[in-house]
Amino acid sequence: MNRSGYLAGCYVALVGTLAALGGLREDGRYYLAAVVLTLPVGLVAVPGVYLLRGLATGLGGLVADTVRPDGGEPGWLTAVGTVGNTVLFTAAGLGTVLLVARLVGRRRRRAAAP
Q: Which of 8, 17, 88, 107 could bridge across to 97 with cysteines, CB 3.0–4.6 Å?
């Protein structure tokens, strides 16, 4: 693996870490940083966050409570949200890497063509 591969891996790991921190600390600033770092692919992940939350609440609500007696969020819903959001933003980071690699490859082919 070359240097750009390692940098791409570190980038994807950073995005995944920011998304995980956003869920664990329940702080939107980490999610915002993950979205900004994964632009433009990260914009696709944002509706996925809301879709995942709706599915988790709807389907999970069939077998478990979605609100604790004190009005808070149950632990299972927080865990599903954190893991799901981390997967979504990590996939967005990977998608961004693949998009950049494709654009760089296209530019190199054009520059090499006579």
A: 8
| Angle (CA) 15 48 36, round 5° | 35
pLDDT grade for 83, boundaries at 50, 70 and 90: very high
For 19, 33, 48, the CA distances from 95, given in Å and listed in that order, are 15, 16, 14
DSSP 3-state of 85: helix
The whole-angstrom separation of Cα 65 and Cα 57 is: 9
Integer Rg of the chain from CA: 18
Bin 25: left if φ > 0, else alpha if -120 < ψ < 50, else beta.
alpha
Model pLDDT, residue 66: 87
End-to-end CA distance of the chain: 30
Tell me: the pLDDT tens digits for 1-37?
Answer: 688 889 999 999 999 999 999 999 999 999 999 999 9
The C-alpha angle with vertex 24 and arms to 95 and 84, in degrees rounded to 5, equals 40
